[in-house]
UniProtKB/TrEMBL annotation:
Residues 27-122 form the DUF7480 domain. It comes from the Bacteria. The lineage of its organism: Bacteria, Pseudomonadati, Pseudomonadota, Gammaproteobacteria, Enterobacterales. PROSITE patterns: PROKAR_LIPOPROTEIN. InterPro entries: DUF7480, T6SS_periplasmic_put. NCBIfam families: mostly_LP. This is DUF7480 domain-containing protein.
Length: 137
């Protein structure tokens, strides 16, 4: 359980420090599994795009995954009915994970965004991969 707490703290601190000192509202992302794959869902707004994603694991041997997009990149539009892209991250059952998602909302004249977080553990029940939330984040 201590490793899970550390994972949550590291994820939250990383998200907060990436924001140039501004206080952030963190929104909860929903985690589920579909066909034995992890699916992270957010309540995306119209014209909301992926700015960053960070995935951390309770397995110290597994590296943290980070991917950033700027407004000028070919940013990925987000939808409340579609899984956030996880870029084939190698999730493993029996481990806990933290996923941080930063977004931006276009048009650029009103540039703003939101931050989402999910902490969860993966396990198998009856041969099916399941995710359970670790904290009430």
């Amino acid at each position: 359980m201590r490793g899970i707490k550390s994972l949550f703290i590291i994820t939250a601190v990383t998200l907060l420090t990436a924001c140039e000192g501004k206080t952030l509202d963190l929104y909860r992302a929903k985690v589920t599994t579909i066909n034995d794959k992890v699916c992270v869902l957010i309540e995306a707004k119209d014209n909301e795009y992926l700015n960053l994603i960070e995935i951390t694991s309770s397995d110290s041997a597994q590296n943290t995954f980070r991917k950033f997009y700027s407004v000028d990149d070919k940013a990925i539009p987000l939808s409340r009915n579609q899984c956030v892209p996880l870029f084939d991250y190698p999730f493993k059952e029996g481990l806990a994970y933290g996923v941080s998602i930063g977004t931006f909302i276009k048009p650029a004249a009103k540039m703003n965004g939101r931050n989402f977080i999910a902490t969860f553990a993966l396990y198998r029940t009856g041969g099916k991969l399941e995710a359970t939330r670790v904290y009430n984040n």
